[in-house]
Amino acid sequence: MKDIISGLNKVFDSRVRLGIMSILMVNDSVDFNTMKELLEVTDGNLASHLKALEKEEIIEVKKQFVGRKPNTSYKVTPRGDELFKKHIDALEKLINPLS
User: Fold this and answer.
1) Measuring CA to CA, which residue among 94, 73, 97, 98 is closest to residue 8?
2) What's the pTM?
3) Number of neighbouring beta carbons within 10 Å of residue 53
4) CATH 1.10.10.10 fits 12-95, yes or no
């Protein structure tokens, strides 16, 4: 029997990381505070998951100033786009293996 979970990527196991990627896949970029509000997580929780995704080169970070305030935004890298799409495809096959 074929291993039906082999296409799942461990880096996306967390619901927070799944949420981060879902947000970033449909937006060019999203800043930290917006992401925190959308996901309803703490600063530390979000930061640790973003750091893990950045370490795997799945997202990239852009730090800049907006006016006099620092602003950090995130976007999906081409590698991240490819890996996340493969993960979603694997989830769909797991849910509906006959399609």
Assistant:
1) 94
2) 0.89
3) 25
4) yes
